[in-house]
Amino acid sequence: MTYQILVSDPVSAEGLQPLLNQDNIQVDYMNEFTNVTVQDVINRYDALIVRSQTTVTKELLEAGTNLKVIGRAGVGVDNIDLEAATEQGIIVVNAPDGNTISTAEHTFAMMMALARHIPQAYQTLMNGKWDRKSFKGVELHRKTLGIIGMGRIGSEVARRAKACRMTIIAYDPFLTEERADKLGITKGSLEDIYATSDFITVHTPLTKETKHMIDDNAFTKMKQGVRILNCARGGIIEEGALLRAIESGIVAGAALDVFEKEPAMDHPLLDRPEVIATPHLGASTEEAQTLVAQDVSEEIIAILNGESFKNAVNMPTISSEVRRALQPYYLLGEKLGEMAIQLVTEAPMKVTVTYGGELSDFDTASLTRRIMKGLLSYHLGDKVNIVNTFHMAKTYNLTYSVEHATSSLGFKNLITVTIETQQGKRSISGTMLAGYGPRIIKIDDYSIDMAPEDHLLYIQHNDIPGMIGLVGTTLGKHQVNIATMQVGRKQEGGEAIMMLSIDSLFNQDAFRDLEQINHIHSVKEIRL
Ligand SMILES: NC(=O)c1ccc[n+]([C@@H]2O[C@H](COP(=O)([O-])OP(=O)(O)OC[C@H]3O[C@@H](n4cnc5c(N)ncnc54)[C@H](O)[C@@H]3O)[C@@H](O)[C@H]2O)c1
Ligand SMILES: O=C(O)CC[C@@H](O)C(=O)O
């Protein structure tokens, strides 16, 4: 199978090399098309690679009926409708590390340019004026820098500011005292930053919480003559409030790489001599562009080839240690989900997944996704995948819960899937047996030992002599070959079950004949 990939924004050709080297991948570039939009052609593609120019809307995603993955060559995914992508089961991956250094360096370049009026002085000189009076600047040395958002970029900015002997105070909900100590900075609140900083720089994502976090009220708490920088996302600083703070003299200078609306043309802030600006250039270096394109290319290859990947934005990330430990259980989990749903005839209301043995020590969320995917996709088909499975469960009013049990029935690991319907509960348990692979070891209260094979027959009957023979003869009459058979019972002469794996698809005549055998209560074919 050949996968089609569309690159809709300018992305480093060198960075795309991993994709171009794949035999089963064909890459197209939007700038090679004329008179068409991404929306017009997206249905041909399995993956889309964007930077920040392409806005990936719900409508675009809906038009992309074959889309499996969106790769963002960069960090911010605010140009992608993540909720819609999740609903449609499209994985969104980004490249969070590749442009960190470039953006931190750009922020630093902006801070120095701001402190020394370099762009304004350059412009004056280019206009033929030798003006040495208007551009008296300030040193960074011994000034206080307030950093809001101490993630990758904020931390790199802090390291550089330390080298310039600045005092650094930072706020981030995830910043611990220990980490602040290690970086040689002070952990403070927003109020502390506003009250003490000579320079303030923001490095948060744009979220509901951070949108306009620096507003009129925040500016009134800042030191007179503060200088402010935004190389993160337009909208973290409210632009109208910034303009007012410049006009009132609270803000002596602002350096902006990003704007609420980009491209920012005829912007009132750009008319102010106190403002220096770049057109969203933080990540625009050869190194960063190669790295981010390489990172998303590798992620896309892994996803299309069904291998594990690490930077999904609309799925929780798991450590490589957990991924390695759980990988062998993914197939078992999916099969258990598929089998569990086939045990019930009423609409499922609640699913409980219980992990026992060594599995109870892990964060099993990624395994639960596989189980729920197996369970839901049996009836809902391909539209369910590991990205949208929890969303789909919610859509169908199916609740799920996860329990970690101490008992594992003597097995090293155990997964039990219990489905509740109006008729009661049905459950199925499985384990990974060293040397044997996945095994089904219990259905409801009956112990069995079967591999989750393609064609299974589950028969409920009374435990009376001759049942095994009758079932064997009936299937033989219909040319259905039994590969393995397991029987289970609660007590002698009571209710019993038979689980058979058969070599071929079961036929309706065989089904009817089996059901007519005295003392057989139900016959169920399980397809995996
Ligand atoms: N200008 C550019 O070209 C460019 C390039 C790369 C990244 N960016 C942007 O820079 C920003 C930071 O990127 P990063 O890679 O450092 O991200 P990151 O995820 O590593 O760090 C973001 C930090 O912000 C913190 N945060 C979230 N909400 C906060 C709040 N209300 N107050 C304080 N801190 C908060 C988070 O805890 C996290 O530590 C993002 O907006 C990203 O899109 C811009
Ligand atoms: O693609 C770009 O140049 C912008 C990148 C930057 O804003 C990001 O969030 O990674």
UniProtKB/TrEMBL annotation:
Entry keyword set: Amino-acid biosynthesis, NAD, Oxidoreductase, Serine biosynthesis
Residue ranges annotated for the ACT domain, each copy included: 456-528
Keyword Transferase: no
Classification via InterPro entries: ACT-like_dom_sf, ACT_dom, ASB_dom_sf, D-2-hydroxyacid_DH, D-isomer_2_OHA_DH_cat_dom, D-isomer_DH_CS, D-isomer_DH_CS1, D-isomer_DH_NAD-bd
Any one GO BP annotation for this protein: L-serine biosynthetic process
Domain of life: Bacteria
Name assigned to this protein: D-3-phosphoglycerate dehydrogenase
PANTHER family reported in the protein's UniProt record: D-ISOMER SPECIFIC 2-HYDROXYACID DEHYDROGENASE FAMILY PROTEIN (AFU_ORTHOLOGUE AFUA_6G10090) (PTHR42789:SF1)
Catalytic activity line of the entry: (R)-2-hydroxyglutarate + NAD(+) = 2-oxoglutarate + NADH + H(+); (2R)-3-phosphoglycerate + NAD(+) = 3-phosphooxypyruvate + NADH + H(+)
EC number: 1.1.1.95
Pathway named in the protein's UniProt entry: Amino-acid biosynthesis; L-serine biosynthesis; L-serine from 3-phospho-D-glycerate: step 1/3
